[in-house]
Design goal:
By secondary structure, the protein is mostly helical. Helix content is 65%, strand content 5%.
Length: 452
């Protein structure tokens, strides 16, 4: 405990780090307060007390910290900005002109501007859909009766668009002047905001059931901690490919010749390069069958469609796991370019021992990546179906969502990234790091000289 307090004192003694932490906390508080400010035309006292929607809307509500189900001005959160960013990232892979812009400083500024414009368009469309959602029976009692439908639609679209842009601005300011990645931090705060309530709900549920409910709750906490450890290993796991740098001779005369080089390094290939994106894609695809629930007239077909919308069913978990594995390979192939990496190695006079530079190096790296992606994809699929398995075993749905899936993967990754930045400040100011056994690597491993 004394060492922990000393670490906190060291962190607080660094003036720049202290200012960044306080700045981040203040902006996060502003965001959390805005999550409870209702839209114009909504009576917050008459909102139904529920846990929020399910399916893809449940994911959006989770990312927005519950603001979606509360009809808040931040109901859409930062998700439209993330959608626009993902679209521009994929466009950089498909469109050569966008890829060229991504390699230039001025081009990256243009892409940031395009992303913001695209965010406005995406938010406007999602806000219009959200207006239709607010007119469902779940929110009918909360709508102001003297507010015209057109004015409600207009004000909601404008306010939600402004709210999303404000949240995007908060994320950018946290990234520039705060600590950690602002957008990821906002999502993590929204996810973890539900954690205390979920713990209390689970404890109350186990106490009411009797029959050693407290012991079962403690076992669940132990399993929960083990899941967190497993997700940390999945996030930080890398395969190191040894790397040599060619020996260079400096000087023209024998007396002036100086030998340099012969140094060794490695290329860190992440076991889970795709991050949380395969789970998000798979959840979005699994939401599609729920659209056809009302159209299934055959009893067997209706039962199958219902099974695909129930995260406790065998068919749901089996198809979901296969889709996560498939999307992991697909997204890894999009973001990972072994040919470009091999060219970078060749330009830096570096090579993999026993492998010829050029095409052979690219094929070797691609083969290694394919091999390590399989276990990473399997573990990612297991993490994705764990919440459904936990629900099936009697864990409440709120607490079960933290047993893996999108929630904990994002939470673990963002916390590791933030701690890595804090540790960098400590080491730069000649303090000990946060860990004795080694540095925190976060989701992005330290780049090697070859890949720089």
């Amino acid at each position: 405990m004394k060492k922990f307090i000393d670490k906190l004192k060291n962190i607080w003694s660094i003036e720049e780090l202290r200012k960044r932490i306080v700045y981040t906390i203040m902006l996060v508080l502003v965001y959390r307060v805005g999550c409870y400010v209702a839209l114009p035309g909504i009576n917050p006292t008459r909102l139904a007390d529920n846990s929020g929607p399910g399916g893809i809307l449940g994911i959006l509500n989770m990312f927005a910290g519950g603001a979606f189900s509360r009809a808040s001005i931040f109901a859409l959160g930062v998700m439209p900005y993330i959608s626009a960013s993902i679209f521009m990232q994929l466009a950089g892979i498909v469109v050569p002109q966008v890829a060229k812009l991504q390699k230039e400083d001025s081009g990256r500024r243009k892409i940031n501007s395009y992303t913001r414009y695209l965010t406005v368009i995406v938010t406007a469309f999602q806000a219009s859909a959200y207006v239709a959602y607010l007119r469902t029976p779940s929110y009918a009692a909360a709508l102001a009766p003297d507010y015209s439908p057109f004015m409600f639609w207009m004000s909601t679209v404008v306010v939600l668009t402004a709210g999303t842009l404000f949240v995007m601005w908060i994320g950018e300011k946290i990234t520039d002047r705060g600590i950690g990645n602002g957008t990821s931090l906002i999502i993590m705060v929204g996810i973890l905001a539900r954690f205390p309530h979920s713990i209390i709900e689970e404890l109350g549920n186990k106490n009411t059931t009797g029959g050693g409910g407290l012991l079962i709750f403690l076992i669940e906490i132990a399993i929960f901690i083990a899941v967190i450890i497993g997700l940390i290993l999945l996030t930080q796991g890398v395969r190191r490919i040894p790397l040599n740098y060619a020996r260079r001779i400096i000087g023209s005369t024998n007396a002036a010749k100086e030998a340099t080089g012969g140094s060794r390094d490695f290329i860190p290939l992440k076991v889970n390069s795709a991050g949380v994106m395969p789970i998000i894609f798979a959840q979005a695809m699994m939401f599609i069958p729920t659209i056809f629930t009302g159209f299934a007239t055959n009893e067997r077909a209706a039962g199958f469609v219902h099974a695909l919308s129930d995260n406790r069913s065998l068919w749901y978990n089996l198809i979901y796991a296969i889709m996560v594995i498939a999307f992991t390979y697909f997204y890894t192939a999009l973001i990972f370019n072994p040919t470009e990496m091999a060219d970078n190695l060749k330009r830096n006079n570096s090579f993999i021992p026993g492998v010829k530079p050029g095409e052979d190096t690219a094929n070797y790296i691609a083969t290694i990546m394919d091999r390590i992606t399989l276990p990473g994809a399997v573990f990612l699929a297991l993490a994705g179906i764990l919440p459904g398995i936990a629900t099936l075993l009697g864990v409440t749905s709120g607490f079960a969502s933290f047993f893996g899936g999108t929630s904990m993967l994002i939470g673990v990754g963002v916390i590791l990234d933030t701690l890595q930045q804090v540790e960098s400040y400590l080491l730069m100011n000649h303090y000990d790091g946060l860990m004795k056994t080694g540095r925190i690597t976060g989701r992005t491993a330290a780049p090697s000289r070859a890949s720089a």
